Amino acid sequence: MSEYQYYEFRAVDRPLGKAELKRLRDLSTRAAISPTSFVNTYQWGELRAAASARAENREREIREKKEAERRRQEAAQAAARAAYLDRLAGREDDTWDKIGEFIATKRPNDYDRAIQLLIDLRDLANRDKREADFRFGLRTVREEHASKPSLQRRLNEAGLPDERALSLPLLDD
């Protein structure tokens, strides 16, 4: 058994404007649309296909909106990070001192704060092409606090490796 549907609308008080015609065309690509009428017919199979196509379009639009929002948030985060690094530039010496103060407390939360500041200084050094200065400062921190395994572990986990260990020659078995 097949279903057949016929829709017809007539504009009786005034012709439709361009914006209204566009909205109707967005609703149906197969209808006969004019400023004074809208005529559309469907067979059952076409109804299912049209519903499926609308659902796919909605899902695609939702994915595109989510992707656009994700890109917007990433751009906002990158801009905020760049602004933060701009504010940090020129205050590196004070930041190194603050790192030393945090580590001296021997409290895990303060270690985490010191690690975050080290990451910030690393990112700033990378941005400003002064990686050697950062590596020297990190080496100094590691040497001064070599007896603190918790700090050393946190430095490694944060991607701030001990360059002395990286530069050791490999031993043969």
Layout: helices, strands, pairs:
Elements: E1 4-10, H1 18-27, E2 32-34, E3 37-43, H2 44-88, H3 92-104, H4 108-127, H5 131-144, H6 149-157, H7 163-166
Antiparallel strand pairs: 1-3, 2-3
Helix pairs in contact: 3-4, 4-5, 4-6
Q: In a nutshell, what does this entry contain?
A:
The protein has 173 residues and is mainly alpha-helical. The chain is 66% helix and 10% strand.
Q: Key terms for this structure?
A:
66% helix; single chain; 7 helices; 2 domains; 173 residues; 3-stranded antiparallel β-sheet; rod-shaped; mainly alpha
- pLDDT averaged over residues: 87
Oligomer: single chain
Main β-sheet, in a few words?
3 strands, antiparallel
The total of helices stands at 7
Distance between the termini: 79 Å
Shape: rod-shaped
Low-confidence stretches: none
CA radius of gyration: 32 Å
Strand content: 5-15%
Strand line-up in the sheet with most strands = 1-3-2
Say how many strands there are.
Answer: 3
